[in-house]
From TrEMBL:
Annotated protein name in UniProt: Aldolase/citrate lyase family protein
Keywords (A to Z) from UniProt: Lyase, Metal-binding
The UniProt record lists the keyword Ribosomal protein: no
Annotated family: Belongs to the HpcH/HpaI aldolase family.
One Pfam family in the UniProt entry: HpcH_HpaI
Organism in which the protein naturally occurs: Pseudonocardia xishanensis
Example GO molecular function: lyase activity
Domain HpcH/HpaI aldolase/citrate lyase: 32-232
Top-rank taxon: Bacteria
Length: 248
């Protein structure tokens, strides 16, 4: 299983990876999303999503079966939560709620075995030897120390959580179609800083149109859909169509 190496190499070559976000628990939900053509990764959200540890092995296996890399946003950046996600089948982790460089360095160590890391050995399912490590940029402390964080060893990419970052910086979060907000300049600065240090960057969204906008800005990790969002919008649209008048 070489998906993390493959993703890492593709990012290093400047390729854009397109993914989806999963908050619905269960292997069937993961399989349905992973079967979509052109998907590179699926993020299983254990911080705000419905999946727990018991569902994770099945969800990761169902995702891998379609040639898609299962990544997990861990519940917290603690030693136990990071290790459990990797032990249960994640090919990489998104690490939330991080602060300055020292905190980020400590949490990156949770992802790898010694001597370069502190991860404890105890895999429950077949796992990859070198998981993808993605730091989520969501706090003022991380933003103000971005250049130092980008130089840390063991970091594969930085993924911006724009709503949490906006709140941390004291800005009002805006809708996905909003332009020329304070966060527009912030996101541009983040992308430029990461690219200057040779680090891939992503910006979270749940719609393809916004993913394309961030791709054009320079993001390499673009999340084009979130399963619950797509389901709600699609069902709502069909209900509206069914209730609409058939007359012109």
């Amino acid at each position: 299983m070489d998906e993390p190496t493959d993703l890492r190499d593709r990012l290093a070559m400047g390729e854009t990876l397109v993914g989806a976000w999963s908050v619905l628990p269960g292997a069937v939900a993961a399989r349905t999303t992973a079967a979509c053509q052109g998907l590179d990764y699926l993020v299983i959200d254990m911080q705000h999503g419905g999946a727990g540890e018991t569902e994770l092995p099945g969800m990761c296996a169902a995702t891998t079966a379609h040639g898609v890399a299962p990544l997990v946003r861990v519940r917290s950046p603690t030693f136990a939560d990071v290790g459990r996600a990797l032990d249960l089948g994640a090919h990489g982790v998104l690490l939330p709620n991080l602060g300055g460089p020292d905190h980020v360095s400590e949490v990156l160590g949770h992802c790898r075995y010694g001597p370069t890391g502190t991860r404890s050995y105890g895999q429950l399912v077949p796992a990859v030897p070198d998981p993808l490590c993605v730091v989520m940029l969501e706090t003022r402390a991380a933003f103000e120390n971005l250049a130092a964080i980008a130089r840390l060893p063991g970091l594969d990419a930085i993924y911006v959580g724009p709503i949490d970052l906006a709140l941390s910086l004291g800005h009002k979060p805006h809708g996905p179609d909003a332009d020329d907000t304070p966060m527009t300049a912030v996101l541009t600065e983040i992308v430029q800083t990461c690219r200057a240090h040779g680090v891939a960057v992503g910006v979270h969204t749940s719609h393809g149109r916004d993913a394309r906008r961030y791709r054009d800005l320079g993001a390499q990790l673009v999340t084009a859909a979130a399963d619950a969002t797509v389901l709600a919008e699609s069902v709502g649209a069909q209900i509206e169509l069914a209730r609409s008048s058939s007359r012109p």
